[in-house]
Amino acid sequence: MLRWDENNQKSNSNEPHTIDLTASQRHLHQIPYPTSTSTSTTTTTTTTTTTTPPQLPPFTMKLRLACLQRRLCGSVTSSFLYLLALIALLTQLQPFLSSLLVVPKDPHHNLRDKLLFPRGVARPDDLDGAKVKDGEGRSHGDEVLWFNAPNCSVMDFMGGPDPTAKMVYDSSLICGPKAADRDVVCSLFFAQIGLKDDGDCIRKTDDHKVPKIVYFVIFGDYTFRFWHYVSIMAAKRHVSPTALYVIGDAHPMGYWWKRVMRDCKGIRFLYRSRPTEIGGQPVKFKHHLSDLVRLQALLLNGGIYLDADMVVTRPLDPLLDHDITMGLIENGTGMGNAFIAAKRNSPFVREWYDRYNTYNNTQFYTNSLHVPRDMWHKNPGRLHVESDRLYRPNWFEADKLFKRWDYDWSQNYAVHVWTNGNPVPKAEEEIQTANTTIAQVFRNALYGDPRPRHQSMLGNSVNGKEVI
Fold first, then answer.
1. Which of 30, 154, 188, 283 registers the highest number of CB atoms within 10 A of its CB?
2. How many Å from the N-terminal Cα to the C-terminal Cα in the chain?
3. Nearest to 175 by CA among 152, 206, 207, 151
4. Which residues lie across from 138 on neighbouring strands?
5. Dihedral (CA of 283, 339, 183, 188) sign
6. pLDDT digits (tens, 9 = 90+) for 331-381
7. What is the distance between the alpha carbons of residues 428 and 310, in angstroms, rounded to a whole number?
8. Taking Cα atoms as reference points, which of 267, 287, 316, 297 lies closest to residue 414?
9. Are the C-beta atoms of 358 and 335 separated by less than 8 Å?
10. Average pLDDT over the chain, rounded to whole?
11. Does 54 score more than 90 pLDDT?
């Protein structure tokens, strides 16, 4: 006969193991009436035996028995009871499951990082992120040193006139033991696009010279024009910059920006949200946003700021030894800020920037042109001035640019293109053979030769019309 021993192991036995299951027990176990029939030739006795099934878990047995007692053993009720059992089981397993699902509180564990920083690509906050001992440039907590200055107070300093400065500039990149050796705007750019600086942002110039880093700052939706393209190409040709940045809150657009991207490899667009106010005052003139942010770039990094209609005409190396170089447009107008070459953390730039704490939002020229002029008048030795070689012909002499050809600009470091109300060339075809000073300047910027060019050497303009 077959029977189940105490360990639920099937074994043979000569002794019949008959179990008399009641109807309720049979229903409880959901088993048929299994029989084992043996017939002997010498007797007519038939012995019927049953096999004991494996025992169900006690908890399930109780549920099923309760179900039977209440005659609620329909399929729906049974499913409900099993669901309750499952919930009870999961409740008991909850601590174990939770331990498996806990994610470390690491800011890197998010979808954005997985997209921006695939395996093998370091995160931006790993940049210069090694722990630094006291005395090596960084002190306890958030108090850090900036270029051997007492404390990294530059963030608070910039945040005076512009509260957004603390939000848009990463202090870990600006303030740190390696920042003095870095183009920090480059570090900000790499962090913004989610890449690590693997030596690309090492400064090529020490702080004894103005670095050959060029900036253009433009806020608002902006369609590049032909003269903007010329300005950038002139900087590339004559400055030979180690880096060239366009800073703004909207990516430049249009045909000529595409030409810049094609012809000026390595140019970088750095997104920078607009300052919401200046010196606690609302900003009424959009130009003042650029006036402020250009000083921030020079303060943090040093370099050469150019307006997008400032065309460099020859190498600027003689100017790079000065702390700061600007040019007077004319005394009544003020000190021009379309060209600023300054060392990092220039004292003149610091004082000028600090004066934006008393920003006058009703006057267009006060903070941008009059303040630096008055500072220069007070102490002329603080500023190297190149008025004629930066702003001549001035805006009162525009005819010498657009209607004449005989102005001697050979000693100029740059020429300002006075675009308002003047016939500025709009395409390459217009400058090929034109006999004007502005055509000479543009040809020098694009081709390195101011002389007229033959028509067969035309560029990619379309029918002599402006392409945008």
1. 188
2. 98
3. 152
4. 144
5. positive
6. 778 999 999 999 999 999 999 999 999 999 999 999 999 999 999 999 999
7. 17
8. 316
9. no
10. 76
11. no
Query: Could you give the count of Cα atoms lying within 13 Å of 204 in the half-sphere of its Cβ?
Result: 10
Residues 234, 252: Cα–Cα separation, whole Å? 18
Q: How confident is the model at residue 79 (pLDDT cuts 50, 70, 90)?
A: low
Rounded to whole angstroms, how far apart are CA atoms 184 and 17? 89
179: tokens are 């920042």
Residue type present at position 142: D
Q: Does position 390 have pLDDT exceeding 90, yes or no?
A: yes
Centre a 10 Å sphere on the Cβ of residue 117 and count the other Cβ atoms it contains: 17
CATH of 207-457, one of 3.30.565.10, 2.60.40.10, 3.90.550.10, 3.10.100.10: 3.90.550.10
Q: At residue 18, does pLDDT exceed 90? A: no
User: Domain residues of the chain, as ranges?
Assistant: 2-92, 207-457
Q: pLDDT value at position 330?
A: 81
Length of the chain: 468
DSSP string, 234-268: HHHHHH--SEEEEEESS--BSHHHHHHHHHSTT-E
Paired tokens of 77: 């009720």
